[in-house]
Amino acid sequence: MSRSGTDAYDSGEQVPPLVSRAAAAARAHGFGKSCRPEQGRLLQALAAGAQGVIGETGTGCGVGLAWLASGARAGVRLVSVELDPDRARVAAEVFADVPEVEILTGDWRRIEERAPYDLLVLDGGGNAKRAGDTPAEPARLLRPGGRIVIDDFTPAGGWPPLLDGEVDLPRLHWLEHPDLHAVELPLAKDLATLVGTRRRDGAATGHAPRGA
């Protein structure tokens, strides 16, 4: 989620109807940290390739989930976990007529209840960004060949990636994860996303691709 993500939907830019509904709900409930459109279009494209289950941590009011649902093919299930009960309720209302979507309330680890995933978006826990938050384990949560997404980075200008002059350890965690082929995708001047694919053979090379 992005700090001013909800405001990005005030421009009148055309977005899928479900995304527009979720953004309106976020605005009405004063939630500003919605998924930005640049990130949302990436999620929509990735969701189109999923064949089983799509997961997300950090539902918010459902904007990112709406992008995922808008891209998912028929028969694909979507599961999202939200820690805040009020936001989980708002999101459930947004998707009340979308039976493929399930909203769970609680700690992000509840996402494990529906594993393994074809696509997993870590936006509200398990992404290695917070102190004391144990990172999600791709080998446990993803099918072989499944993809994981971690957003809200600023584009890196070199290697190793730096944040405020120091090595960006959360970003490095994913880019060099032994269970993933991972890459950084710049989406805007101030926004980048990491996408990783679980290795099919389980063999680790020690270093994943270093991104863009």
Briefly say what this structure is.
By secondary structure, the protein is α/β, with parallel strands linked by helices.
Structure classification: alpha/beta
Question: How are the strands ordered across the major sheet?
Answer: 3-2-1-4-5-9-8
Main sheet: strands, sense, barrel: 7 strands, mixed
Q: What is the CATH architecture descriptor?
A: 3-Layer(aba) Sandwich
CA-based shape: globular
Order of helices and strands: HHEHEHEEHEEEHEE
Q: How many beta-strand runs?
A: 9
Could you state the oligomeric state of the chains shown?
Answer: single chain
Share of helical residues: 25-40%
- Report the top-level CATH class: Alpha Beta
The count of helical stretches stands at: 6
The CATH homologous superfamily name equals Vaccinia Virus protein VP39
| CATH topology group | Rossmann fold
pLDDT < 50 stretches: 203-212
Q: Taking Cα atoms only, what radius of gyration do you get, to the nearest Å? A: 16 Å
How many domains? The number is 1
Task: Report strand %.
Answer: 25-35%
Averaged pLDDT? 92
Distance between the termini: 21 Å
GO biological process, one term: methylation
Keywords: Methyltransferase, Transferase
GO molecular function, one term: methyltransferase activity
Organism: Streptomyces thermospinosisporus
Overview of this protein structure:
With 212 residues, this protein is of the alpha/beta class. It has a single domain (6-198), classed as Rossmann fold (3-Layer(aba) Sandwich), CATH 3.40.50. The protein has 6 helices and 9 strands; from the N terminus they run ααβαβαββαβββαββ. A hairpin with a 2-residue loop joins strand 8 and strand 9 (191-198). Helix 1 runs antiparallel to helix 3 (63-71) and helix 2 (37-47) runs parallel beside helix 3 (63-71). The relative contact order is 0.14. The model is unreliable at 203-212 (pLDDT under 50). This is Class I SAM-dependent methyltransferase. One of its GO terms (molecular function) is methyltransferase activity. InterPro entries: SAM-dependent_MTases_sf.
